[in-house]
Amino acid sequence: MTTATGASNPGRVEHGRIEVVHPDMVGKAAVVTGAARGMGAVFAAGLAARGVDVLGADINDEQMTATAAQINADLAGVEKPGRVVAARVDVTSADEHEALAQRAVAEFGRLDFWINNAGIFPFAEAQDISPEQISAVLDVNVEGVLFGAQAAARHMRPGGAIVNMSSVSAVRVRRGRGAYCTSKAAVAHLTESLAVELGDKGIRVNSIAPGYIDTEMTRWVQEDPAALAHALEVVPLHRLGSPEEVLGPLLFLLSDSARYVTGHSIAVDGGSRHV
Ligand SMILES: NC(=O)c1ccc[n+]([C@@H]2O[C@H](COP(=O)([O-])OP(=O)(O)OC[C@H]3O[C@@H](n4cnc5c(N)ncnc54)[C@H](O)[C@@H]3O)[C@@H](O)[C@H]2O)c1
User: What Pfam families does the entry give (predicted)?
Assistant: First the structure.
């Protein structure tokens, strides 16, 4: 997890902790996919710090195990934290999602929240997107969300909430990211379809559409002076965002504060969807 702050940070990312509490979430249980690093790791840590038990799952099980151990160690001074349990999942597998949901119920006795966060971000100009690349992106970014939501809905009780990670790329074209943009537009639409149908079960489904967030996925922006200068120029808030700044809206969407919010997408992009 990145902890850089302040003026010395060339990407001008604000990593300060967001002080928000949701007492209604204490004692609940969540699954977060893609939780070994990046936003997923911050979501797992942020939920556990607020008393939510988390099954953190990733295809990189070694890193997932290390991340869970680090989060649990960091929570030592926190009053009544949740715990983070590590699991392996390949989100392209419906069966592995079902096993994940069953494991969450076995570990925690309940399942309240599911965050479909795992994603991949390959590059290719539209003319060069290979059959393998488009299949891989749709498998992970779209089918992964569908299978996760299906498994969650089978095991959640009414009042459950699912959040899918979409992107500003769902509504803005980014050169070289045609496959990714297409997948995230599909996630935004799939979220609305799921919200309409899972409303029958009392389950809410929303998405978050981040812009440039400081994770390994966007490290190339910080490492390419021209790309970074462009990002800082065009993003209306003139800086990149931090995973912590996505955690805040995630907590809102999962919490009782959003209990009449479903089928919605929250943009967390410093305004970049407008430029
Ligand atoms: N970082 C950004 O600026 C940004 C912007 C918009 C949307 N997003 C989306 O937010 C989500 C998280 O992004 P991030 O920046 O934290 O990414 P990241 O690359 O840092 O982390 C993604 C995690 O997903 C895991 N993963 C990949 N394929 C998997 C699979 N098949 N099964 C299980 N786990 C798998 C990876 O191992 C990794 O731990 C992604 O869906 C991404 O598309 C990110």
Answer: adh_short_C2
Q: Does the Cβ of 210 fall within 6 Å of ligand 1?
A: yes
Cα gap 190→207, rounded to integer Å: 10
pLDDT at residue 1 in the model: 39
Q: Which residue has the CA at smallest separation from atom 43 of ligand 1?
A: 119
Pocket of ligand 1, candidates 2, 61, 90, 121: which has the most ligand atoms within 8 Å of its Cβ, to mutate? 121
Question: Side-chain half-sphere of 153: how many Cα atoms within 13 Å?
Answer: 20
pLDDT of residue 166: 98
Alpha helix locations (H) across the chain?
38-49, 61-74, 94-108, 131-137, 144-155, 178-198, 219-223, 225-234, 243-254
Mean pLDDT by 10 residues, the chain (275 residues): 46 87 96 98 98 98 98 95 98 98 98 98 97 98 99 97 98 95 98 98 98 94 92 95 98 97 98 95
Catalytically annotated residue among 113, 114, 180, 212? 180
- What pLDDT is attached to residue 10? 64
DSSP state of 90: -
Q: Read off the amino acid at residue 165.
A: M
Residues 6+ positions from 243 with CB-CB distance below 8 Å:
1, 2, 38, 39, 41, 42, 43, 213, 214, 215
The reply to whether CATH 3.30.565.10 applies to domain 24-274 is no
The CA distance from 119 to 94, in Å, is 16
Residue 263 amino acid letter: G
91 pocket-lining for ligand 1 (C-beta < 6 Å): yes
149: Cβ–Cβ under 8 A, 6 or more apart, which residues?
114, 116, 162, 164, 190, 194, 198, 205
Cα–Cα distance between 134 and 118 in angstroms, integer? 16
CB of 12 within 6 A of ligand 1: the answer is: no
